[in-house]
Structure formats: C-alpha cells, structure tokens
Specification:
- This protein has a 35-stranded mixed sheet that branches. A five-stranded mixed sheet has the order 1-2-3-5-4. Strands 15-14-18 form a three-stranded mixed sheet, with no helix packed on it.
- The chain is mainly beta and 530 residues long.
- The longest helix is centred in the first third of the chain and has 13 residues.
C-alpha cells in the first residue's frame, strides 16, 4: 500500500499550477455533464457536496487523472477519459474538503476511501487544511486475505506525512464514527475467527484493528492543528478477538496520533472516545533538556471510555493541557488494558519535560488519573485540576519536580517520587484531599489512604485533608507538612510521620509521636509544640 501511496502522490505533481477561474461560469448538473461539456473556460459543477468551480486545463493530464480516480480535483472529458487531451480542474483556495472526493457524511456510507484520498492531496501539496462538514462520517475498513504475512489489513483514514507547511484538520463539528463489525484483537489468520491466546503474545499475523489511528499526522515539520471533531471508536459494535501483547489488547486503535511532528502543535475541541486503545497518542522527539521545546497546546478536549489510556504522552517538551477531561478509561465494557490511566506520561523516545495542566479533570479511570512512572519525565505542574480516583489511584506522581497548586484530590494517591532532600519530590500547595463520592461522576471513591510508602521529601503546604471513611495519610519520616488541616473518623492509627511546621490541626487516629515539630500541632485537642 505504501508503493501505491507514493505513486498517487507522484502522479498528483503539478496540480498547483492548474489555472484559476476568473469569473462566474455556466452551471452543469453532475460530473457526467461536466465531462461531456465543451472544452474551455470554466463551469460550475452542481453535485451536492462535490460541487464547485472547475476550469478547463489543456495538455496531457493523464497521469493526474489516473491519480485522482475519485475525481475530487480532476474530471476528464467523456471522449478522452484518460485525460491525455486535458481535464477539468477544481478551482479552490488552499482548503481540501473531504466531500469533494465523495465522502457522504450520512452516517451510513463508509467514507474511508474518500477521506484518505483527500488527506493524500493535502500531503501532496506539502500542507494545508483538510476540512470536514458538520456531519457523521463512517470510517474504518479492513480486508482479510488468508495466507498473507499480515492477513488482517486495515485501511488508513486520515494519514498525512512529511509536510513542510502547517497541516490543519478542520473538523467543522464532524464525527468520525468507526464502522460496526470490524475486528479488534487476536484472530486466527487461517480462519479469520477470534482466537484466545496466552499472554504475552506478539505474533503480528493474529493482530487485527479497524485502523491504527483515525487521524495520523506523522513527521510534518510546519506545525499541526486538529480542531472541532469527534472521534467515536464505537468499540461496543466491534468484533472483539482475543487479547494481544503483554497484557490486555495492546493493539493500535487510537483516535488521534501525532507522531514525530515539529513546529507548534494545537489540538482543540476534540472528543475522542470508545477507542480500543488510546484517545490520543503524542510523541514529539526531544532528545535532551538542552533542546528547544515543541510548543503543544491541547485544550477543551475530552478523552473518555478508551481501552488503554485517555492520552499517552511518549515524548515532548512544552506541553500544555487546558480544560481537558480524562474519564472512564478502561470502562467501555468491551476492552481494558493496562495502565488504564486518564493521562499517562511515559517517555519512550527522548524525554518529557515542562508539562502544564490547567483546570483539567480526571475521573472514573480504571487506572490512575494521572500516571508518571516510567521513562525520563520531569517538571510537571498542575493548576486547579481535579484528580478523582473512583476505581484506582487518583494520582501516581513518581517523577521529579511534580507540583500541584490549588488542586482537588479525591480518593487515594501513591507512588510519590523519592527525594530525601525534598528538592525534586512532589509538592502540593493549597490542595484539598477528600473521599466524598459526590465529587465523582461514578459516585464512587477508591477507599484507600494516601500512601507515601518509603518515599521521602514530599511537601504538603496549606492543604486540607477531610475524609468521611478513609484513614489519614501514611507517611514516612521524610514528609513535610506545613499549615495542614486533617480529619478522619476512620478507626485505627495511621503512621503519620514527618516534619510539621507552621500551624497544623489533626483530628483522627494517627501515630505522630516520632515526628519533628518545628511549628504548632494540635492533635485531637492536644497541643504539640517544638
């Protein structure tokens, strides 16, 4: 398919030099009438969403006509369907619309081929805008060919690679909905039927997916933007096979995959949900902290009911999430794979640095809301975010220089980065810790205390811990508390050891006698002073 892709792109060369319409033109009904029209001048094609102005371009257009079998840009004359004597060329101004290539957007017709062809044309031009209408486009197409090395073939939907100019996907309020009945999981390559396997299992002959990513932008250097689009993986309507990978279904089936692009990244108003794997995967390759950032803004997005992660960040520097929601990962009722996080910061190629989260919400994920546990990740700052652990930890901040300001943490947190000096350990300022189930969309809370384990150096400053059932935090001797308020009716004694400064009020079962008191502590009415 890659060879065919290159042939298509090569054959499209030269279209940018096609003539432009200069004035109003006669109207024709349908491409058949356009093909039969007298050559010369310009005509207005009326054919629903395919309509537009076409200009006659003389000369040998055969290669270009051959490259555009869907007639999104070129329509050859009826007497010369090869286009050797010329063709009608669409007049346009920088935007490529999927509807021109035959995408119906009626919620029934499979529009995969039309959308892919439109994206290829954007790629040919070296960048530009791929635009959708406010409609529902059915996508995802597979082919089962027994005997092949990879018998389960998945067609690409939007796939744009290597552009030097900015690439923009303008959803216009569209929905990309995965076609029902497509395979996802392990299937027998000989019969095409679902196959249960013993994990770990990585035989590619068995792997099937509706598509690797509904929108795949790869190694474009002029910046990328995706906006105003819903991607519905419709996993409930998929044909589910056995598991694949090390655990669960580790098979690519992402909503949006930004891979190795450079220049500014913007993802705005995207709703990616019910995908088999991740709502979004992001990789910007930054090899060292000395390299400049790849400015990335992801705002007003929702990532919900995806099988493995809401969002996976595999690399990058200078990433901001603003007003995003990461919810219900691993809760779609069909497939669930670890880690199951809302947002997983897991550097695999290069580093992750300078991540900012503002006014974001994490809730009801099967794994941790925010996970940072592997790879070279550092400097993550969260402002006014809500981390709600309904079924698992709300937070797993196991990387250096993670700071939380004015945040709400509901349920448990664990995996705190260990730094006895406190310099790089997590820091919480003016945060509120609770176990109130009313704060979760699932009306549940993972009832386990905040567990600092053997980690040292974490700071809680001006924080409030108010629990209904959960015990007070368990902390080792290297935790720092400043101006904290804590209360819990839970029976038993939490091991609340650390260094207390400022003024602190603690009500509840806690063993703090071995702590250091550099400020005032009132524990169950008893005043403890330095």
């Amino acid at each position: 398919m890659q060879a065919n892709r290159r042939a298509v792109l090569g054959a499209l060369a030269g279209l940018a030099a096609a003539p432009r319409a200069a004035a109003a033109a006669q109207r024709v009904l349908g491409r058949r009438a356009l093909a039969a029209a007298a050559r010369g001048g310009s005509l207005v094609l009326e054919e629903g969403r395919r309509g537009g102005v076409f200009v006659w371009s003389p000369g040998d257009m055969s290669q270009r006509v051959h490259a555009d079998p869907l007639q999104g840009i070129l329509v050859p004359p009826a007497r010369d369907p090869s286009g050797r004597s010329g063709a009608w060329v669409r007049e346009r101004a920088g935007v490529v619309r999927v509807d021109w290539f035959g995408a119906m957007g009626d919620g029934r017709t499979n529009d995969t081929d039309a959308i892919n062809a439109a994206g290829l044309f954007v790629e040919f031009e070296g960048g530009g805008t791929l635009a959708f209408s406010r409609a529902t486009y059915v996508v995802g197409r597979e082919e089962y060919v027994p005997g092949m090395a990879s018998p389960f073939r998945a067609w690409e939907v939007v796939a744009i690679r290597g552009c030097r100019r900015k690439v923009t996907i303008d959803g216009g309020g569209a929905t990309l909905r995965t076609a029902p009945g497509l395979r996802f999981g392990s299937f027998d390559p000989a019969t095409g039927r679902p196959r249960e396997v013993k994990l770990p299992f990585s035989d590619g002959r068995y792997q099937a997916t509706p598509f690797q990513a509904a929108i795949f932008l790869d190694k474009n250097t002029g910046g990328v933007e995706v906006r105003d689009i819903e991607i519905d993986g419709a996993i409930a309507e998929a044909r589910i096979g056995g598991q694949w990978g090390d655990v669960g279904w580790q098979i690519p089936n992402h909503g949006l995959h930004l891979n190795g692009n450079s220049g500014t990244h913007v993802v705005r108003n995207v709703h990616a949900h019910h995908l088999g794997c991740d709502g979004m995967m992001l990789l910007s390759v930054v090899r060292s902290d000395a390299e400049p950032p790849v400015p990335t803004l992801i705002e007003d997005c929702r990532f919900e009911y995806n099988g493995r992660q809401g969002v996976s960040v595999l690399g990058g520097k200078g990433i901001t999430f603003r007003r995003c929601k990461f919810r219900y990962t691993g809760r779609n009722g069909r497939v669930r794979s670890n880690p199951g996080a809302g947002l997983d910061l897991e550097a695999e190629i290069g580093i992750i640095r300078d991540v900012i989260l503002q006014d974001c919400e994490f809730d009801a994920n099967s794994g941790s809301g925010l996970g940072a546990d592997s790879g070279d990740t550092a400097r993550v700052t969260c402002h006014r975010c809500k981390f709600i652990g309904a079924f698992n930890f709300a937070l797993y901040p196991n990387k250096p220089d993670m700071v939380f300001r004015d945040c709400v943490v509901v349920g448990s947190a664990a995996g705190f980065f260990n730094d006895p000096t406190g310099r790089h350990a997590p820091k919480f300022y003016n945060c509120r810790f609770s176990d109130d189930p009313a704060l979760s969309v699932a009306a549940k809370v993972y009832e386990w205390p905040v567990e600092l384990g053997s980690s040292k150096g974490t700071l809680f400053s001006d924080c409030d811990f108010t629990y209904r059932k959960i015990a007070l935090p368990n902390a080792q001797f290297g935790t720092f508390f400043h101006n904290v308020r804590m209360s819990s009716p839970a029976p038993g004694m939490a091991q609340l050891n650390g260094t207390f400064s400022g003024t602190n009020l603690i009500n509840g079962g806690a063993n703090i006698v071995a702590s250091k008191f550099k400020g005032r502590v009132v524990h169950n009415g008893r005043v403890l002073s330095p």
